Inverse folding.
């Protein structure tokens, strides 16, 4: 049963007739009610039990309704209060609303009106609760929970996120496409004291220049053709929160100048406007472009770069943190299991080595997409292959070895053996890298005994110890 249908209400009034009449009315409509005859008693009961709503008289001896309201707003900020007032004190009722009362009714009360106001207040209260719990959930998720990776360079990223989250300085997130820059930006916001305020994203490469400018700073009515209405920009929208300027490297020069002003003075002007608006939003920017090179070629303002680059965070490309591959595979398997009705739950470890040698130009995003495809396409409960983009794999070991050791006068048997040996060596190296030299685990995954693994390593002069942390 939804909470708003049957809430727990406290009635506070020194007037016996009102208390009894209201109690009966509320109980008739399925609410659980408790009575307090004065402010002191109300305070005591609030401390002892949980209520969903307080219905309080304004004028009472001792602690009056306004004082009780202030106490409630201070100690139970989410608890709605409806004030009950005689005609004579409507002015005070308005004052009560200003102090945070949800609503007021006048005595003698119209039953229907009272019931409607109570229901509405309880519904709003329920919505607030849901929003709060959703926000808590989101906060939990972005407090690194959603960024997978234990690689030492990712741990450095987390440390930097935590450090910069505690400040208001701009952060610049650098990294190739698909490395998780946006996730890092969110982590900064949700780990900062701004977490309850908006996180506003603007993709600077997706918009034409005029549109980008008006999206960022807003515009006044009639400032350009098509500007029929006044429009609030993202900087204003992000007030008190964080604005994420994605693809900052694609911002045209003249907008860069305006961004510089925001960073220097914390001020903006809407397009076509004259009023100066103070903005208070933390700036987080990201790019996959080489800003230093762009400065060299005159495409990016050096002064803006230094403003943004106070706290750079480099997110490493996937190919440089291959030890995170098993965790990521696992994560995406769970994240997208629903694509195949939760049928696919396993990933054959033998698929991993082929992925180790891959370039991952699209980084984690590419991995996520390939995993989605594999989940959809797999027929059983296990993913047994991943379709890597062909032609992208460097030094594919299935072709003749690159060192040219295979001559045209080599017999086919020798040729095959050379290739097999190369494949075996490369497989072993990848497994060692992946499992940090843990021979037991590798033997298990390769389904051969430990001694054989050691013998083969000896053959290829591989030292498993050199792969341990
Ligand atoms: N470490 C990670 N753990 C889990 N998921 C990740 C990780 N890194 C990236 N992803 C996922 O990969 C996808 C791409 O990430 P994101 O959009 O943050 O990348 P990006 O660096 O902003 O890319 P681009 O430069 O193309 O905008 C998203 O679905 C994101 O959830
Ligand atoms: Mg991005």
């Amino acid at each position: 049963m939804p909470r708003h249908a049957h809430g727990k209400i406290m009635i506070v009034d020194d007037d016996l007739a009102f208390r009894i009449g209201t109690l009966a009315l509320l109980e008739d409509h399925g609410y659980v009610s408790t009575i307090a005859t004065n402010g002191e008693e109300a305070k005591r009961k609030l401390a002892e039990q949980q209520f969903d709503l307080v219905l309080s008289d304004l004028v009472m001896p001792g602690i009056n309704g306004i004082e009780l309201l202030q106490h409630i707003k201070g100690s139970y900020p989410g608890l709605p209060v409806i004030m009950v007032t005689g005609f004579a004190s409507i002015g005070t009722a308005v004052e009560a609303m200003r102090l945070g009362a949800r609503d007021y009714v006048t005595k003698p009360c119209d039953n229907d009106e009272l019931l409607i106001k109570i229901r509405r207040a309880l519904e709003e209260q329920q919505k607030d609760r849901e929003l709060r719990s959703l926000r808590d959930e989101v906060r939990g998720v972005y407090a690194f929970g959603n960024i997978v990776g234990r690689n030492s360079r990712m741990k450095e990223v987390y440390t930097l996120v935590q450090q910069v989250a505690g400040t208001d300085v701009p952060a610049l997130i650098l990294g190739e496409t698909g490395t998780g820059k946006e996730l890092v930006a969110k982590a900064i916001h949700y780990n900062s004291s701004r977490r309850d305020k908006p996180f506003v994203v603007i993709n600077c490469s997706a918009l034409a220049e005029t549109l980008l400018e008006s999206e960022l700073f807003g515009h006044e009515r009639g400032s350009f053709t098509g500007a029929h209405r006044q429009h609030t920009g993202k900087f204003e929208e992000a007030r008190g929160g964080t604005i994420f300027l994605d693809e900052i490297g694609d911002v045209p020069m003249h907008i860069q100048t305006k961004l510089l002003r925001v960073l220097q003075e914390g001020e903006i002007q809407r397009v076509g406007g004259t009023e100066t608006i103070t903005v208070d939003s933390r700036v987080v920017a990201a790019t996959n472009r080489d800003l230093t090179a762009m400065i060299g070629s005159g495409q990016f303002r050096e002064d803006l770069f230094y403003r943004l680059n106070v706290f750079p965070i480099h997110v490493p490309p996937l190919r440089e943190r291959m030890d995170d591959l098993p965790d990521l595979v696992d994560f995406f398997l769970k994240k997208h299991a629903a694509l195949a009705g939760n049928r696919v739950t396993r990933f054959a470890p033998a698929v991993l080595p082929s992925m180790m040698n891959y370039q991952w130009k699209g980084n984690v995003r590419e991995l996520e997409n390939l995993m989605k495809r594999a989940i959809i396409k797999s027929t059983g409960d296990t993913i047994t292959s991943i379709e890597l983009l062909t032609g992208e794999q460097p030094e594919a070991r299935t072709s003749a070895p690159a060192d040219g050791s295979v001559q045209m006068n080599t017999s086919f048997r020798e040729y095959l053996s050379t290739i097999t040996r190369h494949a075996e060596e490369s497989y072993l190296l990848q497994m060692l890298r992946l499992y940090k030299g843990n021979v037991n685990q590798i033997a298990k995954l390769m389904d051969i005994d430990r001694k054989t693994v050691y013998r083969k390593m000896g053959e290829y002069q591989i030292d498993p110890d050199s792969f341990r942390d």
